[in-house]
């Protein structure tokens, strides 16, 4: 194992996959000499040249449309959108074209492409650069949505996404880029659609993803000091969703809390809560609780006060434990 920063793990995955497969290429704004807005593509231009690392004009719809055409012709584009907040600019390409390619062509064409996009709040970037929009895209059939929390998962899931024959939206949290963690020295893959149990427990299941994994683990330690043993499930992938991992944990604990950074209303937490209510209601000993951001744009200042945190999760667990 070696200690690596999250953004470096992303960079290593891109280097390795481009060296392994000549059909892989990078496209986006400032991905060449600048190395991307956050350094994810640093060094790729020097290693692989302009043919495979293509800077583009500021036109997200053109970038993603070009990537779809290239993917349908046998290449494997990796698109970098500078901020996830800019994904709505290319919504038609993603939702009506990329996600439906395999379906509308009866499997004769596929769209093996990856769209990388940094999202999330915590860096005081304001309402147009700090959103968590994953629930929009998890709603779209034909599109896989991945949200790694650790450097190891970021690298392993990105390599899997690049090799996948279906389109993958790869959402990276900006506030995680500078974090570090251990990753294997040798090549490895992390499968898409498989959750990870970050902490085992017997009293309550807490399901989460991305940066909220760390807030949840902090909450779990606080709860342990109070005598409550929480199990923490890191989804890693939103679509496909690892229902088996969630069901297995809830069957053991009989209580469920879902925590995500995105706005609480109409989020992935609501989907998981509905799924458990429909299929496992007899197992539950308490109402399901959700933790998320308030129904408001992300403020420029005091983002920390806006974001859900470990204390919010502790309070939600304490409430479900009263039943």
Describe, in plain words, how this protein is organized in 3D:
Helix 7 links the parallel strand 6 (144-146) and strand 7 (168-173). This protein has two domains: 2-183, Rossmann fold (3-Layer(aba) Sandwich); 196-320, Rossmann fold (3-Layer(aba) Sandwich), CATH 3.40.50. The chain has helices at residues 6-20, 44-48, 60-72, 91-97, 101-104, 134-138, 151-163, 212-225, 243-253, 268-280, 303-306, 310-320, and strands at residues 2-5, 24-28, 53-55, 76-80, 114-119, 144-146, 168-173, 180-183, 196-199, 204-208, 230-234, 237-239, 256-263, 289-293. The chain starts with a strand and ends with a helix. The radius of gyration is 20 Å and the shape is globular. The protein is α/β, with parallel strands linked by helices and 323 residues long. The chain has a seven-stranded mixed β-sheet with strand order 3-2-4-5-7-6-12, with helices on both faces.
